[in-house]
């Protein structure tokens, strides 16, 4: 079907998308995680495939299914694994979208055996995980690099500072203030901000529609 993809806006382009949560192991049966479902990343992957791209979709633990010949799914568990896989593919891709809810911290040590309750209380020392987007941003050559920002306060300022810190080309601000936006739900309300700090706010929409809006913004800048 390769010839059918010719003439689409992302024909011949490769896209890397991270999606879902990461799980950071405490012991063989316990982890530190978060409520991300991966929905936004899966919609971005589907939309990219529909636009003609070949997609690498790196997913943390999620029940979502993906069956699309243009999308290669690479399942991972932890932030460190996600970072390594992203680095493995980075040189061959044109666009990266980091939509994963990467755990900022992991337990300093992982117990090989299940921790027993007779230990009394439990204090878990946490250490910082690698910042995946920043790691890629530091190595960036031709790639167009897009992050997400989940903010509750000073959202525009914080999102803009993440563009600079991670050497991004754009960031998608997720407005948690609005009903129906954020983790798990069917809908999202975003503002697209590029590295020149041009801002474009969107209405509350389904995540599939939000994915199309994000790709429209990226495409207009890729071709500029
Ligand atoms: N991100 C990443 N690696 C991490 C943490 C975050 O690649 N270890 C990415 C996320 O996928 C997202 C962007 O960085 O695209 C911003 O994530 P966010 O949690 O909003 O920002 P942080 O840089 O982690 O800062 P903080 O949580 O303190 O606001
Ligand atoms: Ca974070």
UniProtKB/TrEMBL annotation:
Its GO CC terms are: phosphopantothenoylcysteine decarboxylase complex
Q: Could you give the cofactor binding note from the entry?
A: Binds 1 FMN per subunit.
What's a single GO MF annotation on this record? metal ion binding
Segment Phosphopantothenate--cysteine ligase: which positions? 15-224
Enzyme Commission identifier(s): 4.1.1.36, 6.3.2.5
The record lists the catalysed reaction(s) as: N-[(R)-4-phosphopantothenoyl]-L-cysteine + H(+) = (R)-4'-phosphopantetheine + CO2; (R)-4'-phosphopantothenate + L-cysteine + CTP = N-[(R)-4-phosphopantothenoyl]-L-cysteine + CMP + diphosphate + H(+)
Per the database record, which ranges form the DNA/pantothenate metabolism flavoprotein C-terminal domain?
10-220
User: Which keywords annotate this record?
Assistant: Decarboxylase, Flavoprotein, FMN, Ligase, Lyase, Magnesium, Metal-binding, Multifunctional enzyme
Q: Flavoprotein as a keyword?
A: yes
Pathway(s) annotated for this protein in UniProt: Cofactor biosynthesis; coenzyme A biosynthesis; CoA from (R)-pantothenate: step 3/5; Cofactor biosynthesis; coenzyme A biosynthesis; CoA from (R)-pantothenate: step 2/5
- Flavoprotein among keywords: yes
Residues annotated as binding CTP are: 104, 114, 130-133, 148, 162, 166
> What is the required cofactor set for this protein?
FMN; Mg(2+)
Protein's GO biological process: coenzyme A biosynthetic process; pantothenate catabolic process
- Signal peptide from the UniProt entry: none
Q: Which family does it belong to?
A: In the C-terminal section; belongs to the PPC synthetase family. In the N-terminal section; belongs to the HFCD (homo-oligomeric flavin containing Cys decarboxylase) superfamily.
Give a short account of what the protein does. Catalyzes two sequential steps in the biosynthesis of coenzyme A. In the first step cysteine is conjugated to 4'-phosphopantothenate to form 4-phosphopantothenoylcysteine. In the second step the latter compound is decarboxylated to form 4'-phosphopantotheine. Catalyzes two steps in the biosynthesis of coenzyme A. In the first step cysteine is conjugated to 4'-phosphopantothenate to form 4-phosphopantothenoylcysteine, in the latter compound is decarboxylated to form 4'-phosphopantotheine.
Protein name as it appears in the record: Coenzyme A biosynthesis bifunctional protein CoaBC
Q: What's the name of its gene?
A: coaBC
